[in-house]
# Entry
Amino acid sequence: MGKGPLSGVRVIELAGIGPGPFAAMLLADLGADVIRVDRPSAVRPGAASGGADFSNRGKRSIAVDLKSERGREVVLRLAEKSDVLLEGFRPGVTERLGIGPDDCLARNPRLVYGRMTGWGQQGALARSAGHDIGYIAVTGALHAIGRDGGPPQVPLNLLGDFAGGSMYLVVGVLSALLESKTSGQGQVVDAAIVDGTAHLSTFIHGMLAGGLWQDRRGVNMLDTGAPWYDVYETADGGHMAVGAIEPQFYAEFVRLLGLEDRDGEAALPGQHDRERWPEMRERFAAAFKTRTRDEWAKVFLPSDACVAPVLSLKEAAEHPYNTERDVFLEHDGKHQPAPAPRFSRTAARTDGVPALPGGQSRDVLTDLGFDDVDGLLDSGAVVQS
# Structure
C-alpha cells in the first residue's frame, strides 16, 4: 500500500492466476490498499515470504475458506468496507458461493465489482475453459502475427492476458469508480480477454478497411513484411530491431547502416518499392552481419534511425537507458519492473515484496473492525500464516 494516486481506495481481490492478480498489482502500485483473499490451502506453514510471484507485490493477504458460511460472511463484510472487488472465476462461481455481484452490491451499493474472464460472462463459450492463446486466436490477432508463409507466432501471454485482459479490467474499474463518485452507485465490470484483444486491433482493422492492410501475415508494413520493420541477426548471433518507417528516419537508418548511395555500388531500391523488398532485405541482412549487436548499438543509439538492440529479460534490467530511468527495481537480489506510469505529484511506488498467503489475516480483520477475530481464526474460516 503506497501513497500514489489511488491512496485511500480499498480493493478486495479474490485470488486467481494471470490477468486478475496483475490488475490488482497495478492498482496496488498506484497506491490502492489491495487485500488479496487467498484459499487456506495456499497457506504454507513456516513460510517466511511470498516467494517471487511479483504480481502479488504491495498487497496484504487474508486466507479465507470461501465454502464455509463464516468465510462467506467475512468476504461480504470486506466488500462492505471496500471500493472495488475483483474476481476471475468462471461465470457463476461467485454466485454459487454467495459472494456474487448481487450479494456484494446488496451490502455495499457503491461497490465496483470487476470480473475477469477469457470469454466473457455471456455467450456460447462463457463457461468453457481457456487460456490466452485461444482467446487471441478467435479475435484474429494471433492470425496476424508471424512471417509470410509461416505459422502464427505466439506473443507470450502479454497480448491476451495482460493487454487485452488486465489493462481493460483496470480501465473499466477505474472508470466505474469515477462514475460512482457522482451517481453514488456501483456496478459490474465485465472484462473479457476476447473483447479487449479485439479492441486492441482497432487500428489494424482500420487499415484493413482502408485497403492498407492485407489479411495475411508477414506481408504488411508492421508485421515483418517491410524490410525496414523487422529484426536482423548480427555477427555474434544477436539481433537488432528496425522500425524506420518515416522517410527521414529511414534515410538516417540507411546512412548509419553504411548503405547510402556510393559510386560503384548499386543503389538501394526505393523504400516503398514492394517488388524489390526482398533485394532490400538481403542488403540489410548482409550489412548487419558485419558487426556484433553491441557494436551496432553504439552506432545507432542515440539517433533518429529507430533501431535498437534486442535484449534478453536479464540484459534489459541492466541496460544503461533502463537503469538511468529506474525502469526496473531490485528486491532481495531479484529484478522486477518498476511501477508505471509516472506521476508528477503522487508517485506510484512499491516495496516489491509479494504477499505471503494468509500473512496478514489477523491484521486485516483487526484493521477493518472485525470484533470476532479470534473466533474466526479458531473456527478455520480464516487462517493466519
Remarks:
- DSSP finds 15 helices and twelve strands in the chain.
- The mean pLDDT is 96.
